[in-house]
């Protein structure tokens, strides 16, 4: 166990110095180990692949912090769980938002939560409207039509990985648009997520 930690820490040191082959080795060591866990959490292999890629992208982007990490595997798992639960939270909130839109009468109250909910839906709409045409088309087919990645890829003559990458970028853009408007998990959003 100690040797394994040492080799991971050595890899972290090399990655912190910009060593791409060390980064690839870390990815090929842990990516396959993490995939069953993320598939179990998200119930979707394609999403699991995206979450694992995002996890390792964060490792690369945070490489200046790597020399100070005492237990690399635990640190990687923390990022992985954060990414997984962020995805699940977004999916739950999105689904509840769509359900609430379908039963519009339920949202006709003048409570603060309803006002904030409407404002957030408007902001999401703005963010979607600002997406590049192809990304917007892919997002709408996925979220509004409920099409799966392979179906969208076939319909638009694109590769599944292009569709997946586009969806990930679109979700990041939407999240950033919401954050720039000050919507960072306010109370009403937590209420919507953990609703009755």
How would you describe the overall organization of this protein?
There is one protein chain. The protein is 78% helix and 0% strand. It is mostly helical and 196 residues long. It folds into 2 domains: 2-86, RNA polymerase sigma factor, region 2, helix turn helix motif (Rna Polymerase Sigma Factor, Chain: A); 103-193, Arc Repressor Mutant, subunit A (Orthogonal Bundle), CATH 1.10.10.10. The chain is globular, with a radius of gyration of 19 Å.
Outline of the structure:
The protein is mainly alpha-helical. The chain is built from nine helices and no strands. It is 78% helix and 0% strand.
Topology:
Elements: H1 2-16, H2 20-42, H3 45-61, H4 72-102, H5 112-130, H6 133-143, H7 149-156, H8 160-180, H9 187-193
Helix pairs in contact: 1-2, 2-3, 2-4, 3-4, 5-8, 6-8, 7-8
Q: Give the assembly state of these chains.
A: single chain
| CATH homologous superfamily descriptor of the largest domain | Winged helix-like DNA-binding domain superfamily/Winged helix DNA-binding domain
- How would you describe the shape? globular
State the helix count. 9
Strand residue content: under 5%
Biggest pleated-sheet summary = none
From the coordinates shown, what is the CATH architecture of the largest domain? Answer: Orthogonal Bundle
Taking all residues together, what is the mean pLDDT?
77
Q: What does the radius of gyration come to?
A: 19 Å
User: In total, how many beta strands?
Assistant: 0
Count of discrete domains:
2
Q: Which class do the helix and strand fractions yield?
A: mainly alpha
